[in-house]
Amino acid sequence: MKTYHGSCHCGAIRYRADIDPAAGTVKCNCSICTKMRFWAAVVAPAAFRLLQGGDALREYRFHTRRDAHHFCGHCGINVYTSGDAPGSGPFVAVTIASLDDMPVDDMLAAPVRYIDGRNDNWRTPPAEIRHL
What is the spatial distance between Cα 19 and Cα 31, in angstroms, rounded to a whole number? Predict the structure, then answer.
């Protein structure tokens, strides 16, 4: 477990998160995750701390409106998603791309679990993952 720092592109939003890259990351094929090329490290809410920019955060929800996609209202960068997943409970999914100090080697070594969100199938990866 290491503490990493992240931010949006313009720096209005800053956070830190305790992440274990060896625990893996996720990529989802639902419509919004596909368009964002969402790649995230999922942590417990207590492992995520917003340091600044709460007033700049905007939220987008769709479909079941269960998950909140948080992005900067100034530069538009998605920094994290939060929600309450059936079976696993509350979570924060920190976007790997918004981490400022995670070495590329740590990113590449982190296992990736693919989620078939497009079909609400959270346990089996989608048949096609090359585009994710």
Answer: 26
> HEC states along 42-109?
EECHHHEEEEECCCCEEEECCCCCCCEEEEECCCCCEEEEEEEECCCEEEEEEEHHHECCCCHHHHHH
- Record the pTM: 0.90
Confidence of residue 63 (pLDDT cuts 50, 70, 90): confident
Q: How far is CA 38 from the centre of its chain?
A: 7
Determine contact, residues 25/96, Cβ cutoff 8 Å. yes
Domains belonging to the chain, first-starting first, are 2-117 (2.170.150.70)
Model pLDDT for residues 20-48, shown as the tens digit of each residue: 999 999 999 989 999 999 999 999 999 99
What pLDDT does 40 receive? 97
